[in-house]
Amino acid sequence: MIAVGAAVLFAVLAVAEAGSTRKPYSSAQNQKGQTPYDILRKAKQEPQSAKTRENAEIGPIVAKARLRPTPIPRGQAIGYFARQQQGTTLVKPPELRDVPADAPPDPVYFALEIDDRKVHGIVYRSTHRTKKAKLRLDTDGDGLLSNEREYIGTWLSIFRLSRVYEFGPVSIKHTGNGSRASRFYIGCNDGKWIILYATHYREGQVKLDGRPYKIALVDCNYNGRYNDVLAPPVKSSREPECDSIAIDLNGNSKFDFDRPGASELMPLSRLVKVNESYYQLDIADDGQLVEFRRAKPAFGTLDLGDESVNIRLWSDAGHQQLFSSKGKWRLPAGKYSAVELKLTETDSTGNRWLFDTEKARGGAGAGELGAFEVRPDETTIFKIGPPFQAKTSMEKHGRDARIAFYLEGQAGELYVPGAKKNGKDIPKPQFQLVSATGQTVHSGQFEFT
Ligand SMILES: [Ca+2]
Ligand SMILES: [Ca+2]
Ligand SMILES: [Ca+2]
């Protein structure tokens, strides 16, 4: 412990000394009034911020917003990116050392990823005569569930096709990051799926260029902080693994939401674009204060070849929905992940084929487009689209199996094989399951949802 303390002290002194002789901070971007310790602390907490600052000229604070905690009504889109889903398992994790006394022989287990640690949990129907659905979480990580709170499930009868129970709000204390405990709901669907729902978000108003905008922040990774910024690659277009921001851009007092990324609800990025202006956000850990600074990003070029492309990109430098018949765009320098891509190809006889990644698992971001960088005054080049390769995979879910069949483009991006030809759907591919003796066991048509 002494060694660590000494190392930190030494670093602070070194920075203070550099500051007094060469004054590297006085001319820099709006860091007036900060001590060298503040700067050091900030640089340690926000390595990505420093990176973004290199790629953009950051001006003074032009607006501040105060946000207040607000409950999320059930099913409202604002919580979309906080709705984390995962499968359960019948295998008891070695970290758990006990099971509740009234658990049946086959409870299901799951593990939540919170603050870079695993929080193990159990869901079961009590063997007691009440047969209640119950949940416990090993919140202190000691491997025991007997010293934890028991949550009783509420049956959500609105879901007719499956049996969904909701537990909580559960509460998890954070280790060491100074944040207050996080509260969220845990849903359990047919004992097979665990779904996390946020209970609250932060909402307020900001005035930019004289116009008021309603804004909101959601702590989607439940770590008690509201400033976790997108860092490509993302897990999927539904799980960006960061917090989210909503801005009521069209002023209808609602946060309009269509598909992931195509709306006023977005993964949180360091730079946001509001009416063609870019702003850098500085967000307090508890999400109750947001400072907007005018930002002038440096630009680079993305080149996807001479292709006709509709593309949706997530980035730490703001999100983009773009079209080009030449596959080229000027973009703010930053780290990017492609979320959706539509490609139009014309064959030798003049037929137009539309290939879409939307319903392919991983889709646009499955290959090289999943994480790439656009650098100032440089061109980032990818070859996409045909020649395609057929790609199949199989996943097992208990007694069920899921077989996927996609078309893989040159950059590893995945398209659904059911293309559109001259605006009309062509039939989805058929499949046959053949036994080792050559008999057809099952046949059908692929479905993409
Ligand atoms: Ca425990
Ligand atoms: Ca967070
Ligand atoms: Ca709106």
Structure description:
- The protein folds into three domains: 67-72 and 200-296, no CATH class; 89-191, no CATH class; 299-445, no CATH class.
- It is 9% helix and 43% strand.
- It contains three helices and 32 strands.
- The strands form seven sheets. The chain has an eight-stranded antiparallel sheet with strand order 14-13-12-11-1-17-16-15. Strands 19, 20, 22, 23, 24, 29 and 30 form a seven-stranded antiparallel sheet that branches. Strands 2-10-9-8-7 form a five-stranded antiparallel sheet, with no helix packed on it.
- The termini are far apart.
- The model is unreliable at 1-33 and 39-52 (pLDDT under 50).
- The chain binds calcium ion (3 copies).
- One calcium ion is lined by residues 138, 140, 142, 144, 147-148.
- One calcium ion (CA) binds at residues 219, 221, 223, 225-226, 228, 243.
SSE topology:
Blueprint: H1 2-22, H2 36-45, H3 47-54, E1 56-71, E2 84-87, E3 108-114, E4 117-125, E5 133-137, E6 151-152, E7 154-155, E8 164-172, E9 182-189, E10 193-198, E11 200-208, E12 211-218, E13 244-247, E14 265-267, E15 271-274, E16 277-283, E17 289-297, E18 299-303, E19 308-315, E20 320-324, E21 328-332, E22 334-346, E23 352-356, E24 372-374, E25 379-381, E26 389-397, E27 400-408, E28 414-415, E29 420-421, E30 424-425, E31 430-434, E32 440-445
Parallel strand pairs: 18-25
Antiparallel strand pairs: 1-11, 1-17, 2-10, 3-4, 4-5, 5-6, 7-8, 8-9, 9-10, 11-12, 12-13, 13-14, 15-16, 16-17, 18-21, 19-20, 19-22, 22-23, 22-24, 23-29, 26-27, 27-28, 29-30, 31-32
The structure holds calcium ion (3 copies).
